[in-house]
Specification:
The protein is α/β, with parallel strands linked by helices. It has 5 domains: about 200 residues, P-loop containing nucleotide triphosphate hydrolases (Rossmann fold), CATH 3.40.50; about 190 residues, Rossmann fold (3-Layer(aba) Sandwich); about 100 residues, Winged helix-like DNA-binding domain superfamily/Winged helix DNA-binding domain (Arc Repressor Mutant, subunit A), CATH 1.10.10.10; about 70 residues, HRDC domain (DNA polymerase, domain 1, Orthogonal Bundle), CATH 1.10.150.80; about 100 residues, ATP-dependent DNA helicase RecQ (Arc Repressor Mutant, subunit A, Orthogonal Bundle), CATH 1.10.10.1390. It is built from 34 helices and 17 strands. It has a 7-stranded parallel β-sheet with strand order 3-4-2-5-6-1-7, with helices on both faces. The protein has a 6-stranded parallel β-sheet with strand order 8-13-12-9-11-10, sandwiched between helices. It has a two-stranded antiparallel sheet with strand order 14-17.
């Protein structure tokens, strides 16, 4: 089959496509010609067809080595559907009985089977090796080939045995395929499979339909995720977590909030995992919550979002997992929640492993942290990591590009960095170089006498965040590169030497500071407004609140809480209708207090020429009052609160959450019938008096003051009574 026409006819016959995707035809022709082939093609690029079609056309059986049983099953089913004969594709793994394995061998012997999928563990079994030596092998396809490298995101020691086993079975061309591989990993794959002279095909890693965002991971991360999913109703999504426990907990949270979700991890039996995958593919559930460590063989084209609850161990893993979004070319939102303490957890997991493995793990974690903390275009960072240059200054598809930080000139710092690398003979990694620049006399620096070189401490006026940004920007600009053989060691490129001879402008954006106690900004994908609070207006609103509180003889928080004022000072509501979009402001509060606040905001906007966002909206907290009407009606009928909780299938504490949301938004309710059943009048007066005299409605402070005499639930009940009567 030499002509292009014949190959296109085969493509149409077996797969129903009229044309190949970019790169596929050249790869297939190379394999048909008997060459070893290395394919680097991102998820969704059509890797599997590159070996499936040649296998159907060549004499003998192709052995496809894949680590995922679920993926094997999906691909075998798909090929059988296309090929029209069940025996055309088979898999051998631990899930098959002895009789089933014999049936597979019969189909291979008789020439019916063109593709045999095996896990590396199955390939190494002596009985399988003996059998495969007796049949004609068309070629070997090593899928997920990055598993062969310790620097790959899913290293599997059994992959190192593949080449020796191939040699035992018999000589045939090899095609290695991976969706994610850095220069270091690519070299490892080719060395270990002994295909250094392979024809290499590399596709672009850019997925322009994917939006990348990193959010600070706060205590409200579960609520943030629920809110996010509710803003994308009936869309398919995957959430990755670090531990099985968190997978189970988060799945429960989603189910409680009426989100169709299911867990997926290695602790479940294979039937349960298979059922979850089928439910996801058939859209009986919308969201799968999975462990990062346990790969899923799900080929669903319309996954609209991928959320990382915990930051992954490597950028390769992150790219692979986000690559499950938008495979159909439609929108894919990739949101990662990041906290430095997650990195510390991952580092702790490495303890006890061999030193070399720990070193590799830490280097990969540094790359992940650099991606998360950087203010540089996230697409540019990802593509650079995989050795691809992205020339656009603004991708318009990541949070850093939609909300850029101000840039600063850092030519002096770049020159200091280059001179320091040169002075230390290009033998050290970035942490060591930062110690020299910042004047830190670490044990290693003093051992090499580098605290005595002229560049020691030359950059101490800059923060570590600035130096991180300088190093990252110089790598992207091509002034530095990381040594492939001694990964992490920084080398000066020819462009870097040229810069030292003739410096030019060099702009950087300082890294983002992820304070773990900070409140996550609500960033609207594809161009929402920034949520920076107007500090002048906020103080004016607080002053107005204080005056009203004095006039009405109520604490300031009774009028509006601080979060409500912050939201007002962010998006500038100017009518009572707009004011009701603010968290904690219902119709009652807007009507009672809102007019003066709206007038103050309007006057401030006019006097300062403030242009409000055209699309006026704010993300409110996840709605805790889903049973609101039912709860209020039950209270009107004086149903005991504990019975209301049982009737609505919620815990008593969650009922109190709902009641607080109701009264803080401005609706008046009367729960005296229940309060005076559990507390006597003096006790109620005592708690009520505390809140009337206090400047804050903080539960923690109330517990500090009253906790010896009253429980948290008792204090909350009276606080609800107080807010309802005084504010509403």
């Amino acid at each position: 089959m030499n002509s292009s026409t014949d190959l296109h006819q085969a493509l149409k016959q077996y797969f129903g496509f009229d044309t190949f995707k970019k790169g596929q035809e050249a790869i297939i022709r190379s394999l048909l010609a008997g060459h070893d082939v290395f394919v680097l093609m991102p998820t969704g690029g059509g890797k599997s067809l590159c070996y499936q079609l040649p296998a159907l056309l060549m004499p003998g059986t192709a052995i496809v080595i894949s680590p995922l049983i679920a993926l094997m099953k999906n691909q075998v089913d798909a090929i059988r559907h296309q090929g029209g004969e069940d025996g055309v594709a088979h898999f051998i793994n631990s899930s098959l009985s002895r009789a089933q394995i014999e049936a597979v061998k019969h189909d291979i012997r008789t020439g019916v089977t063109k593709l045999l999928y095996v896990a590396p563990e199955s390939l190494t079994k002596e009985e399988n090796v003996e059998f495969l030596r007796s049949v004609t092998i068309s070629f070997y396809a090593v899928d997920e080939a990055h598993c062969i490298s310790e620097w790959g995101h899913d290293f599997r020691p059994e992959y190192r045995k593949i080449r020796p086993i191939m040699n035992e079975i018999g000589k045939a061309p090899v095609i290695a395929l991976t969706a994610t591989a850095t220069k270091k990993v690519r070299m490892d794959i080719k060395k270990n499979l002994a295909i250094l002279d392979a024809d290499e095909y590399k596709s672009s890693f850019n997925r322009p339909n994917l939006y990348y965002e990193v959010r600070p991971k706060t205590q409200n991360v579960d609520k943030d995720i629920v809110r996010f999913i509710r803003q994308h109703p009936r869309q398919s999504g995957i959430i990755y977590c670090l531990s099985r426990k968190k997978v189970e907990e988060l799945t429960e949270v989603l189910l409680t909030n009426d989100i169709k979700a299911a867990a997926y991890h290695a602790g479940m039996d294979s039937a349960a995992r298979s059922s979850t995958q089928d439910d996801f593919l058939m859209e009986r559930i919308d969201v799968i919550v999975a462990t990062i460590a346990f790969g899923m063989g799900i080929d669903k084209p319309d996954v609209r979002f991928v959320i990382h609850y915990d930051i992954p161990k490597s950028l390769e893993g992150y790219y692979q997992e986000t690559g499950r979004a938008g495979r159909d070319g439609g929108e894919g939102l990739c949101v990662a929640f990041y906290a430095r303490k997650d990195l510390q957890k991952l580092e702790k997991f490495m303890e006890g492993k061999p030193v070399a493995e720990q070193d590799i793990g830490r280097q990969l974690l540094k790359e992940t942290a650099a991606y998360a903390e950087s203010a540089v275009c996230r697409r540019k960072l990802l593509l650079h990591y995989f050795g691809e240059q992205y020339d656009r200054d603004n991708c318009e598809g990541c949070d850093n590009c939609l909300h850029p930080k101000e840039q600063m000139e850092a030519g002096t710092q770049l020159m200091q960095l280059l001179q320091t690398i040169k002075a230390t003979k290009e033998n050290f990694r970035e942490d060591y170089l930062k110690d020299i620049l910042l004047g830190h006399r670490s044990e290693d620096v003093t051992a090499h006498n580098h605290d005595s070189i002229e560049w020691f401490g030359v950059g101490e006026e800059c923060s570590e965040q600035v130096w991180n940004a300088v190093i990252r920007a110089s790598l992207i600009a091509g002034y530095l590169e990381k040594d492939v053989d001694n990964y992490g060691v920084l080398k000066i490129t020819p462009a870097g030497h040229q810069y030292m001879e003739k410096p030019t402008a060099f702009l950087i954006a300082e890294d983002r500071n992820y304070d773990e106690d900070a409140t996550a900004e609500e960033i609207e994908p594809q161009g929402g407004a920034s949520c920076a609070v107007d500090p002048v207006l906020f103080e004016m609103l607080r002053t107005l609140r204080k005056r009203l509180s004095k006039e009405l003889s109520v604490p300031p928080y009774v009028v509006f809480q601080d979060p409500s004022l912050e939201a007002m000072a962010t998006i500038y509501p100017q009518t009572l209708e707009e004011l009701q979009n603010i968290p904690g402001v219902g119709a009652g509060k807007a009507k009672r207090y809102g007019t003066e606040f709206c007038e103050l905001i309007k006057k401030h906007c006019v006097e300062n020429d403030i242009v409000r966002p055209e699309d006026f909206r704010i993300r409110t907290k996840a709605n805790k009052s889903k049973h609101k009407v039912n709860i209020i009606q039950s209270i009107d009928l004086k149903v005991p609160l504990d019975d209301i909780a049982v009737a609505n299938n919620i815990e008593f504490g969650e009922l109190l959450d709902n009641l607080e949301a109701i009264v803080y938004s401005g609706t008046k309710i009367n729960i005296d019938y229940f309060i005076f059943d559990v507390l006597d009048e003096d006790q109620v007066d005592d708690i009520y008096h505390y809140f009337s005299e206090s400047d804050t409605d903080s539960l923690d402070e109330a517990l500090n003051e009253l906790g010896e005499d009253y429980s948290e639930e008792e204090i909350r009940l009276v606080r609800i009574k107080f807010i309802s009567e005084m504010a509403n």
